[in-house]
Design goal:
By secondary structure, this protein is mainly beta. Helix content is 0%, strand content 33%. The chain contains no helices and ten strands. A four-stranded antiparallel beta sheet has the order 2-1-5-6, with no helix packed on it. Strands 3-4 form a two-stranded antiparallel ribbon. β5 (43-48) and β6 (53-58) form a beta hairpin. The chain starts with 6 loop residues before the first strand and ends in a 16-residue tail after the last strand.
Length: 119
């Protein structure tokens, strides 16, 4: 029915039109557009009217992490300090630093820092 009100839910949370969700009704057509989806948005989408309920499974495929800024070659002086840095496409990535295939762990010799996407 053209005048029938609907409600949209994602994982049992009622959705409203805002900067992330765009809910539209044109005639008998009802649409939900969700922007900037992430794997955490996966779940059940439900459309409810007074007399009907429809649901669909939403699966969000995660994009792989990629290097946005690669390591640059570096030259250091004996007993000096060097600093290597790179940037990845997602925050909270756990990097594994290696030298000659040996994993480097944080110590007095090796300091490892991470700030968002910068490693």
């Amino acid at each position: 029915h053209e005048d029938e009100e609907v409600e949209w839910f994602l994982n049992n949370t009622l959705l409203y039109s805002n900067s992330v969700n765009d809910i539209k009704k044109i005639g008998r057509s009802h649409t939900l557009t969700v922007k900037q989806i992430s794997p955490e948005d996966s779940g059940i989408v439900i459309l409810k009217t007074e007399n009907l309920t429809e649901s669909a499974q939403l699966k969000v495929k995660e994009k792989p992490v990629v290097f946005l800024k690669s390591l640059d070659d570096i030259v250091g002086e004996e007993r000096g300090v060097i600093s290597l840095a790179c940037e990845v496409s997602k925050p909270n990535v756990k990097p594994v630093w290696k030298k000659d295939e040996v994993v480097l762990t944080a110590s007095d010799k090796y300091e490892q820092r991470q700030a968002g996407k910068s490693l």
